[in-house]
Amino acid sequence: MIRCIKSLGLAALLLLLGALLFGQEKMPLTPESAVELAIRNNLSLESSRVDLDTKKRASDLVWNQFLPDLSLAGTLSRQNWATTSQGFNISTVPPYSILPYSIEMPQWNVNGTFNATLTFSFALIEGIKSFRLNYQAGQVNFEKARAQIEQNVRKSYNNILLLQQSVALQKENLETAIRRYEMADANYRAGLAPRLTVLQAQVAMENMKPTISESENNLKALFSSFAMTLGLPFDTSFELAAVSGTDFAMLPGLGELISQASNGSLDILELQANLRYLASARKAQAMQMYTPYLRFGWTLSSTYNPMLDPFKNTWFDRDNWNKGGAFSLVLGINLNSLFPFTKEGQALKDTDNNVRKLNIGLAQAVRGTELQIFTTVNALEQIRTNVEAAQLTVNLAEESYRQTEEAYRAGLQDFLEVQAAGDQLSQAKLQVLSHEFNYLNNLLDLEYYTGISFGTLSSGAGN
Q1: What's the pLDDT score for residue 410?
Q2: pLDDT at position 17, please?
Q3: What is the pLDDT of residue 360?
Q4: Nearby residues of 355 by Cβ (< 8 Å), 6 or more positions away
Q5: Same-domain check for residues 191 and 234
Q6: Per the count of CB atoms within 10 A, which of 39, 80, 107, 319 is most buried?
Q7: pLDDT for residue 397
């Protein structure tokens, strides 16, 4: 009895391990949950998040440049050669005398210094603005990286669905080919078809299997890459929710889209933010070069009596220390920066060139975005026109295949005609699927170019 219970317990344990190892459930996924996972786990976005945090701290603590520079130092030094101090002792009571003396000075000396320095210039005021603008540019850069990840995830999601439906269509074609083979074999056995027809049907059926196997391997690789993008193990299994049907609705006007892009395109907003920051940094650099600075300084020092040996006399007697220090106020200007051929002058010219380059890049980005919007809108209009013809082609191909198959059963058509009609139907269905998903992906591109929230136009992508 005990042995039986142990055997049952072992069997239950093995079943549990088998369920854990081989019964992994698929993770349900929608476009929104996929985007959420990618934003939370993507390493490149995490790097952008760290950069943004650095700029935010610099902006929040920009006031710390008005804190004085404090330093505390203690010095223990030893002279390389001993020195002597010579002089005369004059007696002040009779009998008056003047006696020479010579004292060997200690070679060791101790000194402590505390310094506080604060430098003020008009460049500090502009520097506060530069820190703020740098943080704002970092925010735009982060939003751009986030939008690019969301765009790529949504497009990858659509591509996987397209490949899944393509594989499903190929399997339907394989089932149809198997049915045609069985039909041809039955006709051959009944004496209604030659052996060649059976061989043709069998060859057509077998040729489909490697294509399906290759498509499934591609789908598996696409799933693995998608899982890594989401920050999950590469062997994670997904159950993707189907997207809603594409309605091919009319798009906003081209002028409206371009106007929206000028105010919302993250590529343009990023360059504008960087340009504002660089212009402010250039202004701060010029103020640093061409305006005077005012430096406040306070020093407190304490030096051990050079006549005493710090290793033989006590350190805790105040009379053994000589106190010193001073408060200073310095008004000055950097003369090198006044000449354009100096290092400082050339640095300012380099900044001017960088500002000009960024302005050129902004102009190119504006034109490039306009061209991308124009091209994408044309592509969407072309797909809208083609999909109507493609859907009509599917209807005609279905009718053609049905009639050809009926004629084949009646002995009025040969097998090659049936196979050709089936291939045409399969190609027509795949073309419609491709048009639908290409339309959705182009809408995602258009949303990114214009800065519109994803799902505003691509409502068929699951929103």
Answers
A1: 63
A2: 37
A3: 94
A4: 275, 278, 279, 282
A5: yes
A6: 39
A7: 73
450, 308: one domain: no
Specify if 12 maps to a domain: no
pLDDT-above-90 percentage for the chain:
17
Distance CA 427, CA 180 (A): 18
Mark whether 351 and 421 lie in a shared domain.
yes
> Is residue 20 in a domain?
no
What's the predicted TM-score (pTM) here?
Answer: 0.75
Helices (H), 102-237: 122-189, 195-229
Closest residue by Cα to residue 149 from 157, 139, 138, 159:
157
Print burial letters for 54-85: b (CB count within 10 Å at least 16), e (below 16). ebeebbeebeeeeeeeeeeeeeeeeeeeeeee
DSSP 153: H
CATH of the domain at 347: 1.20.1600.10
H-helix or E-strand containing 293? Answer: strand 293-304
For the beta carbon of residue 403, count every other beta carbon within 10 angstroms.
12
Enumerate residues 6+ apart whose C-beta is below 8 A from 211: 170
Whole-number Å distance between alpha carbons of 118 and 296: 5
Report residue 236 as tokens: 């994670």
Q: Which of 134, 115, 121 is nearest to 66 (CA)?
A: 121
Class of residue 133 by CB neighbours under 10 A (exposed 0-12, middle 13-18, buried 19+): buried
Q: Give the H/E segment covering residue 114.
A: strand 108-120
Residue 231 inside a domain? The answer is yes
- For the segment 203-238, what is each residue's pLDDT rounded down to a tens digit? 888 888 898 889 889 989 988 998 888 888 888 888
Collapsed DSSP state (helix, strand, coil) of residue 119: strand
Place of tokens 């189907």: 242
**Peptide linkage before 252 cis (omega within 30 of 0):** no
- Does 86 lie in the same domain as 59? no
Total structural domains in the chain? Answer: 2
- Statement to judge: residues 87 and 232 lie in one domain: no
Same domain, 245 and 382: yes
Q: Which of 421, 457, 352, 460 is nearest to 180 (CA)?
A: 421
Domain limits for position 319: 75-119+298-332
> Cα-flanking dihedrals φ and ψ of residue 302, to 5°?
-145, 120
The residue out of 277, 306, 332 marking a domain boundary is 332
Same domain, 140 and 225: yes
Average pLDDT, the chain: 81
